[in-house]
Amino acid sequence: MSLFSRLAEKSWLSPGTDGYQDPAGYRPTAVAVGLYIYFGVVVVIFSLIVAAYLMRMGLHEALGHVSDWRTMPEPPLLWINTGILIVSSLAWETARRASLAGRFERMRAGTIAGGFLGLAFLLAQLLLWRQYMAAGYYLSANPANAFFYFLTAVHGLHLAGGLVACGSIVGGSGDPGRTSRNVRLCAIYWHFLLLIWVLLAALLLST
Questions:
Q1: Can you give the pTM of this predicted structure?
Q2: CA-CA-CA-CA torsion sign (77, 196, 158, 139)
Q3: Alpha carbon distance, N-terminus to C-terminus of the chain
Q4: Any idea what the Cα angle at residue 108 is, between residues 107 and 110, rounded to 5°?
Q5: What gap in Å lies between CA 18 and CA 103, rounded to an integer?
């Protein structure tokens, strides 16, 4: 539908009156609107944290050798965790496509696989934290460490929320249409978290 056609609509009339007909699937569901609003809030939160990170790092560059900023190493587990999250996102994409095709068994399998891999990512992140702490990179040691733990913790909390939604889908026994919709929304949410993680990892590794 073109923009001019949309502006010319008489949406205040009842469907079918005076030639007006509400297109099928025209209005998004309330939960979909809520999800996209949530995305906007999350983007603002992470943008503010990243801005603070860059400003603090800029102070480190301005002060030079007297700064307390110390970069952290790049252990292999960081790359492994990224790979786990990518595979998890692919599993959710499989579930999303299966829901569109009406293949509910495949959709359920993709949902369970995506949730399991998401949980594996969180556990691997905790293991990464332990490795850093064992090497002496404590949260209070310097600002770079603090930002790393804070950024990864905030991302992990959002992913944990996605796991709660995944559990409600797997454990639920509602109508198939609603379940399929929830799977598609969870897949979008997972892709969003993957994008956030890739951007954060690129920021942390490049600085």
A1: 0.81
A2: positive
A3: 46
A4: 65
A5: 40
